[in-house]
Design brief:
The chain has about 250 residues and is of the alpha/beta class. It has 9 helices and 7 strands, in the order ααβαβαββαβααβααβ. A 7-stranded mixed β-sheet has the order 3-2-1-4-5-7-6, sandwiched between helices. α2 packs parallel to α9. It is globular, with a radius of gyration of 17 Å. The protein starts with a helix and ends with a strand. The relative contact order is 0.17.
Length: about 250
């Protein structure tokens, strides 16, 4: 990730329509899990600047949150947000013992070129207690590649079937996947294509907060779309969300 992008992320993550929709999807899946099993400890593997911690701390206040990130500057942002159980480490070699968490959440982590995806998924599965769940998010469709990908270090984008295959190979079961952010797929496709025409000096992420009224206007239909995605799945979108279980 380019220098300074974590600072940009910290400024927008708790309000930006994309992050708020993603965190809503994750919170919904974790809440659903609590209805059938005990959720005592969760690990945010690749916690970034702590936006997910902020989104969950009231909704799942009884859950013990552990944030893990390879970047100390990101952990510093998490600490300022109030997270206390933070560990510096990579998903290639998770600093957690086997079977110690009920849920593990790697959001937009496995796309980095430095990550061995198969090794990382085996590591993620090993940290889960039997019956524990993984909630995973990744960028979708290579057609959406643009300057944003260069700025945040997206080495590749994924299809649902590829994610399902990786999870199955790593030993996960009850795998459920869906695309999301279908509503803005076409505008985003056009924006990313245009961004490729810019110079190398213009490489930067899309992490800018729109006008407040625009941001709010986007959140409402995306929440409705998220409900459809969670129940029936969507045929395409800018991201792919997966939920899977470690078999008992």
């Amino acid at each position: 990730m380019k220098h300074g992008e974590y600072d940009v992320m910290a400024q927008v993550e708790t309000e930006h329509w994309w992050y708020r929709t993603l965190h809503h999807l994750v919170a919904a899946e974790l809440t659903r899990y609590t209805r059938r099993a005990s959720l005592r400890v969760m690990a945010d593997a690749g916690c970034g600047t702590g936006g997910l911690y902020v989104a969950l701390r009231n909704r799942l206040s009884s859950v013990d949150y552990v944030g893990i990130d390879v970047e100390r500057s990101a952990l510093a942002h998490c600490r300022r947000r109030g997270a206390r159980k933070l560990v510096c480490g990579s998903v290639n070699d998770l600093p957690l013992g086997p079977g110690v968490v009920d849920a593990i959440v790697p959001l937009d982590v496995l796309y980095f070129s430095t990550i061995d995806r198969r090794r990382a998924l085996r590591q993620l599965r090993a940290t889960l207690r039997p019956g524990g769940i993984l909630v995973l998010n990744l960028p979708a469709f290579e057609a959406l590649r643009g300057r944003h990908d260069e700025a945040v270090g997206i080495e590749r984008r994924f299809r649902r079937k590829e994610v399902e295959s990786l999870l199955d190979e790593a030993g996960f079961r009850d795998i459920k996947t869906t695309y999301w952010n279908l509503m803005l797929f076409v505008p985003l496709l056009a924006w990313r294509w245009l961004s490729r025409l810019g110079s190398d000096e213009q490489v930067r992420s899309d992490l800018t907060l729109p006008f407040r009224w625009v941001n709010r206007l986007l959140i409402v239909p995306l929440r409705l779309e998220a409900a459809v995605a969670l129940r029936w799945g969507l045929p395409f979108g800018s991201s792919v969300l997966a939920v899977a279980r470690r078999a008992d």
